[in-house]
Design brief:
The complex is a heterodimer. Helix content of chain A is about 70%, strand content about 0%. Chain A is mainly alpha-helical. In chain A, strands 1-2 form a two-stranded antiparallel ribbon. In chain A, strand 1 and strand 2 form a beta hairpin. Chain B is about 50% helix and about 15% strand. In chain B, the strands form 3 sheets. In chain B, strands 7, 8, 9, 10, 11 and 13 form a 6-stranded mixed beta sheet that branches. In chain B, strands 2-1-3-12-6 form a 5-stranded mixed beta sheet, sandwiched between helices. Chain B is globular, with a radius of gyration of 26 Å. The chains are: A mainly alpha, B alpha/beta. Chains A and B meet through helix 1, helix 2 and helix 15 of A and helix 1, helix 3, helix 13 and helix 21 of B.
């Protein structure tokens, strides 16, 4: 064990040494080869193919033939496409806004030493074990207007037409997403909160800070990096929301919840227009990349430092 | 210090070797996998098998039985493959022009095979029929013609016919003092009475969208006759803006505005059992649904299916151009044959089983209604003789049997049609919006 840690320490020093120009060789390219090959094969190659397909007309049966910019001009004049991007962004923002506070509170609570904590945490984390499909089917049944929860609580849900209006459908998608993903993020925050050095709390307690102040002035700032990780995961998840939409709303009513990922699926695998589907996929890639870059820049994720630096 | 460095280096080279080995294995594994899957199909075709691809559901027992019967006498063996229901069309589409494509596949005729005919993938069956006229003569013509594209036959009916009927809950109607509506005004009258009693007059699984479409199909047929839709399908987009079309839409609107479907139908689905349960539990009085409603109710509430479920033809609309005996729905399912099949004679022999006595009896026993000319002989053996007889007479007497709109148009049109019918029911689209949506459909 100690031999290993000293070896790791040595490795670190070697890296630092290399940076300042002392000639020690770095691990070769071969170390990264498997990952690189997989990335090229399963990420870059399909991306290039999709880019090519977006300039073709292809029904998935005969060979694709080039039709120039036709898919793109259609797409830019397609109100459903524009709407789908806004819907995707809206669902993403709603996801972050609803899931973050609950995950932080749950995670920080679960990191504590209370009794029953382990048992209750295990219960809270159950949704994490269910597939998105199972979760969607479950809520679809629970929200049936006649035989589900809304049918029992008419004073709260009115006629129960949750999936029959745009606002209702978006609320349902947000709620189901929250139910499904909060446990994952709570788990991240639990880990983050456990890593906060106890000395900080002890010092704060000596200075007379109560639990609430400790939370806002120690826990939250210390969780900054966890928060960034969690938000990035939520944003990526939100931008690719698909399975819940497929099962709960099928993009409906009408096209009211047709998010970009679902619209792509619809064009490709329901309308058999893979050219148009590919164009949407590419738009989604560009939008998602821009947003990720923005998040990384704004949050300082790219030059992230350990929050414990200077303490030990 | 030095010894440590040596340790790290040797570790590195070991890992490098392991990495290369792992990568090689993976790449080899991938190529091997691709190779074998491609090879097996072509290999088995040579060794004398025909592959039969079918929509996967509870009806597959009969398909398997027929395949077994065929294999008893045939040298070329048939192998049955099933694809779970909801994904059938998309999966079929992804394999149909690959080496994995089957020899024979299940479809709905009409628009569901038109793209494959256009791409020259299907075998016209006319020469088979010339050799054995029974392949055509043993089926009801209105059904057989659904799989005729550009004057050539591309499908042999299999499974059963599925007309759309107006189902009702007999007890609900009796306690409200109502009878089954014969005309449009009867229906509107029933709606008013039921609504006053706090019962949803008509259950509708609007979340699935295609049940909503059935109302358009029938009302258009009754108001304008089958010609309007046929013209539109043939490319005459003006048909959608004709006065008859506008009148039909007005009547749809009238029914929705009368509260016939309640207010939360878009949150209800047929496919998850929502709307059939409304009917079975007496919370709704009617449901317009394909003939599979019977087996759906039977599996969830056998007692209701047996004693409480009523059925009738869609009401007449006086003054309309359509014959009240016209029906709409899924005409039938069909087996079509791929051009590339290497055993056309075996395929022909297999297709002949689709009008055999064994086939008809097996289908009737699971509640399907075949449309062969020998079906009436066996109707008394069906799971529900009265119901089967009613349907068979209805289909036989129908001057026109309109294939569901989303099956008649090529698959690419489905989403547009479904969105249009749903938004029209919601009031999100008006008459002009609906007409424009239908005119935007590609017809070829």
């Amino acid at each position: 064990m100690s031999a290993l840690s000293s070896a790791v320490e040595l490795g670190r020093r070697r890296l630092k040494a290399r940076r300042v120009g002392v000639g020690v060789t770095r691990p070769g390219f071969v170390w990264a080869a498997p990952a690189t090959v997989f990335f090229l094969l399963f990420a870059i190659l399909p991306l290039v193919l999709v880019a090519v397909l977006s300039f073709t007309s292809w029904d998935g049966i005969t060979s694709p033939h080039f039709n120039g910019l036709a898919n793109w001009t259609t797409l830019f004049h397609d109100p459903v496409m524009t709407q789908s991007i806004w819907l995707t962004l809206l669902l993403t923002v709603l996801g972050v806004v609803t899931q973050t506070p609950i995950s932080i509170l749950l995670g920080v609570w679960a990191a504590g030493p209370q009794r029953n904590r382990a048992v209750l945490s295990a219960i809270f984390f159950v949704p994490l074990l269910l597939s998105a499909t199972a979760v969607s089917v479950l809520w679809r049944a629970l929200l049936d207007p006649n035989f589900g929860i809304p049918g029992q609580l008419p004073w709260l849900f009115g006629n129960g037409n949750l999936l029959g209006s745009q606002s209702g459908s978006i609320a349902v998608l947000t709620f189901v997403g929250m139910w499904q993903f909060t446990p994952l993020h709570a788990l991240l925050y639990q880990g983050g909160a456990r890593a906060v050095p106890q000395v900080l709390y002890q010092a704060a307690a000596i200075d007379g800070a109560g639990t609430v102040r400790q939370f806002f002035h120690i826990t939250l700032p210390q969780l900054r990096n966890t928060m960034i990780t969690s938000v990035i995961l939520m944003v990526v998840g939100g931008l690719t929301t698909f399975d819940t939409v497929l099962i709960l709303t099928q993009g409906g009513p009408g096209t009211d919840t047709t998010v970009s990922a679902y619209y792509m699926y619809e064009q490709g695998f329901k309308n058999f227009d893979f050219g148009a589907g590919s164009a949407i996929a590419l738009v989604l890639v560009v939008v998602a990349t821009l947003i990720s870059l923005a998040v990384v820049r704004l949050s300082g994720y790219d030059k992230m430092r350990s929050t414990t630096e200077g303490i030990s | 210090m030095d010894s440590l460095r040596v340790r790290i280096r040797s570790g590195a080279s070991r890992n490098r070797f392991a990495a290369i080995a792992a990568t090689t294995t993976l790449v080899l594994g991938l190529t091997a996998a691709c190779g074998s899957s491609g090879g097996s199909t072509s290999g088995s075709a040579d060794s004398g098998t025909i592959h039969v691809l079918v929509y996967g559901d509870s009806g597959n027992t009969v398909e398997q039985q027929i395949v077994d019967t065929f294999n008893k006498t045939s040298k070329v063996k048939a192998v049955l493959y099933t694809i779970p229901g909801a994904d059938y069309q998309s999966k079929l589409n992804t394999i149909i022009n690959t080496p994995q494509a089957p020899d024979i596949f299940f479809n709905w005729g009409g628009g569901s095979i038109a793209p494959y005919v256009k791409d020259n993938l299907l075998l016209p069956l006319d020469s088979m029929i010339a050799k054995d006229p029974g392949l055509k003569d043993n089926f009801l013509p209105s059904v057989f013609n659904t799989a005729v594209v550009d004057g050539k036959s591309y499908g042999i009916p299999m499974r059963g016919t599925q007309p759309v009927l107006l189902f009702d809950n007999k007890q609900v109607l009796a306690s409200a003092g109502l009878s089954v509506p014969q005309t449009w005004n009867d229906l509107l009258g029933d709606v008013a009475v039921l609504k006053a009693k706090g019962i949803t007059p008509i259950a509708l699984g609007g979340g699935d969208q295609w049940p909503t479409q059935m109302w358009f199909e029938y009302i258009y047929d009754r108001v304008a006759g089958p010609g309007l839709f046929e013209q539109a399908l043939a490319g005459d987009k003006a048909a959608w803006s004709s006065p008859d079309s506008v009148k039909a839409l007005g009547m749809v609107k009238q029914l929705v505005d009368a509260g016939a479907f309640g207010s939360n139908f878009d949150s209800v689905k047929f496919t998850d059992g929502g709307s059939p349960a409304l009917l079975a539990k007496g919370r709704a009085a009617f449901e317009l649904m394909g003939s599979w409603e019977y087996s759906t109710e039977q599996s969830s509430d056998p007692d209701f299916a047996k004693n409480g479920l009523g059925w009738s033809a869609f009401p007449a609309i006086p003054g309309g151009k359509g014959d009240p005996a016209d029906i709409v729905g899924n005409t039938n399912n069909f087996y079509s044959v791929l051009k590339k099949t290497q055993h056309p004679d075996a395929v022909a022999a297999f297709l002949k089983l689709m009008y055999s006595d064994e086939f008809v009896q097996a289908q009737l026993a699971i509640g399907n209604l075949p449309t062969t000319t020998n079906t009436p002989t066996f109707l008394s053996t069906s799971a529900s003789p009265g119901y089967s007889q009613f349907q068979f007479n209805l289909v036989k007497a129908a001057p026109s049997f309109q294939l569901s709109w989303d099956q008649a148009y090529p698959p690419a049109a489905t989403t547009t049609i479904h969105t249009a019918v749903q938004e029209f029911f919601d009031g999100k689209t008006d008459t002009n919006g609906f007409i424009q949506a239908m005119q935007s459909l590609a017809t070829s």
